[in-house]
């Protein structure tokens, strides 16, 4: 079976895990700090606003706390979003307000947000679908004017840029994922950006037991160290969702390999663009290459024969899927609004394999199988 996504892990990751074992410190330590710094630097940022965690979903739930979502607040979420976003909003007691998205690139637009905004709107979650940035100029202009917090789900946008600025650094908070299917994987893991440093500090405390961010340990060389370092105070009810040095060791190696991964993904995307144009009734993804740098996390095609095509490809050993099933169709989140584009997208869109491990013969097989399907 040709996989939709696949990790590329090797000797380098194994070697660095080995060193972590030998160091006798596998918890959150200097490698986590190094990864936070390198990740931020890769996005042309310094690490001050960044904070690692255990998953992107953890960060999504954290957002509800950091921005104090509560009864009476309205939180706008595009119907085509990762499900934990809706869960986080619902759990907070705030109202989940779904909106539609662009029919072709599946990204939310300022006009979609504008249709559902009210004076109760507190925040909007946007998702850079498949690693292709949303139109940030119009979204930020609108949300700033309305005083709405912008939270960017950048899980797919590990290194995406809009007009030279990294996705995840436009709004008030953003989160990335390093789960098993992401381009940069550490097995599991997440990264957070928070613009306001007070909120960033609070987030750090919430993710680590509610302990004050400046809590010292007995090993600290600092002069200000408490003499009884086992005493503590708790600022807030906190969880324990911190990255460890084993995860960070993998992530650091993956970050070094990321440019190569992205280059191969781009190559595959360009190949699909070329070979699949004018095949059947296919509509291919498009964006403005002069202002946008994608992370090529998804490649998607749209066709009126989506279901038959998916079955045909599965029969030929090619796994495909559709991400993300619209939230308005999920019972727990259902809403009676009209989401015409999301409806259409959920009928016609198919994500086909794209990952750096695909060989030339595999991508040829994929293209040939799709072409054959339409020429039957
Ligand atoms: C993978 C993904 C998530 C969730 O990430 P986890 O680290 O698995 O919690 C959230 N949003 C999007 C868009 C994703 O692709």
Can you walk through the features of this model?
The chain has helices spanning 11-23, 30-42, 56-66, 83-92, 110-116, 136-146, 197-207, 245-276, 306-315, 340-348, 360-374; strands at residues 50-53, 74-78, 95-99, 121-127, 149-153, 161-162, 165-166, 173-177, 190-194, 292-293, 299-302, 349-352. The protein is α/β, with parallel strands linked by helices. The strands form three sheets. The protein has a seven-stranded mixed β-sheet with strand order 1-9-8-5-4-2-3, with helices on both faces. Strand 6 (161-162) and strand 7 form a beta hairpin. The protein starts with 10 loop residues before the first helix and ends with a helix.
Strand and helix layout:
Blueprint (H helix, E strand, L loop, with lengths): L10 H13 L6 H13 L7 E4 L2 H11 L7 E5 L4 H10 L2 E5 L10 H7 L4 E7 L8 H11 L2 E5 L7 E2 L2 E2 L6 E5 L12 E5 L2 H11 L37 H32 L15 E2 L5 E4 L3 H10 L24 H9 E4 L7 H15 L2
Parallel strand pairs: 2-3, 2-4, 4-5, 5-8
Antiparallel strand pairs: 1-9, 6-7, 6-10, 8-9, 11-12
Helix pairs in contact: 1-8, 2-8, 3-4, 5-6, 8-11
List keywords for this structure.
7-stranded mixed β-sheet; 376 residues; alpha/beta; 3-stranded antiparallel β-sheet; 11 helices; binds pyridoxal-5'-phosphate; 38% helix; globular
Ligand inventory reads: pyridoxal-5'-phosphate
CA(first)-CA(last) distance: 23 Å
Output the radius of gyration. 22 Å
Number of strands: 12
Number of helices: 11
Strands ordered across the widest β-sheet: 1-9-8-5-4-2-3
Q: Name the shape in a single word.
A: globular
The helix-and-strand class reads alpha/beta
Mean pLDDT across residues? 96
Tell me what portion of residues adopts beta-strand conformation: 5-15%
Main sheet attributes: strand count, strand direction, barrel closure: 7 strands, mixed
The stretches of 5 or more residues where confidence is low (pLDDT under 50) are none
Along the chain, the helix and strand elements come as: HHEHEHEHEHEEEEEHHEEHHEH
Helix fraction, binned, reads 25-40%
């Amino acid at each position: 079976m040709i996989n939709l996504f696949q990790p590329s892990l090797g000797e380098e990751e194994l070697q660095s895990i080995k060193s972590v074992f030998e160091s006798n410190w596998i918890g959150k330590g200097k490698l986590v700090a190094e990864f936070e710094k390198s990740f931020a630097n890769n996005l042309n940022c310094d690490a001050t606003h960044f904070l690692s965690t255990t998953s992107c979903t953890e960060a999504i739930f954290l957002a509800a706390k950091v921005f104090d979502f509560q009864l009476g607040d309205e939180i706008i979420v595009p119907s085509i979003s990762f499900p934990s976003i809706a869960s986080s909003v619902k759990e907070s007691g705030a109202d989940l307000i779904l909106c539609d998205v662009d029919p072709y690139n599946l990204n939310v637009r300022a006009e979609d947000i504008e249709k559902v905004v009210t004076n109760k709107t507190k925040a909007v979650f946007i998702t850079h679908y498949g690693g292709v940035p949303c139109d940030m100029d119009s979204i930020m202009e609108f949300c700033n004017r309305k005083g709405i917090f912008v939270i960017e789900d950048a899980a797919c946008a590990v290194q995406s840029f809009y007009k030279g600025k990294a996705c995840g650094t436009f709004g008030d908070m953003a989160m990335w994922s390093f789960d098993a299917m992401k381009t940069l994987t550490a097995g599991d893991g997440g990264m957070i950006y928070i613009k306001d440093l007070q909120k960033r500090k609070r987030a750090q405390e919430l993710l680590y037991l509610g302990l004050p961010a400046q809590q010292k340990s007995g090993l600290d060389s600092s002069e200000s160290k408490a003499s009884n370092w086992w005493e503590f105070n708790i600022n807030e009810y906190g969880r324990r969702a911190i990255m460890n040095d084993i995860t960070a060791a993998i992530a650091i190696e993956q970050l070094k390999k990321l440019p190569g991964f992205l280059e191969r993904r781009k190559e595959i995307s360009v190949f699909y663009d070329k070979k699949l144009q004018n095949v059947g009734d296919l509509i291919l993804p498009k964006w403005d290459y002069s202002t946008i740098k994608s992370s090529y996390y998804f490649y998607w095609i749209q066709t009126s024969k989506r279901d038959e095509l998916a079955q045909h490809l599965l029969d030929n050993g090619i796994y495909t899927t559709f991400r993300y099933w619209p939230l308005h169709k999920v019972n727990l989140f259902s809403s009676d609004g009209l989401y015409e584009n999301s409806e259409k997208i959920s009928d016609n869109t198919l994500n086909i394999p794209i990952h750096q491990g695909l060989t030339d013969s595999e991508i040829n097989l994929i293209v040939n199988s799709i072409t054959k399907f339409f020429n039957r």
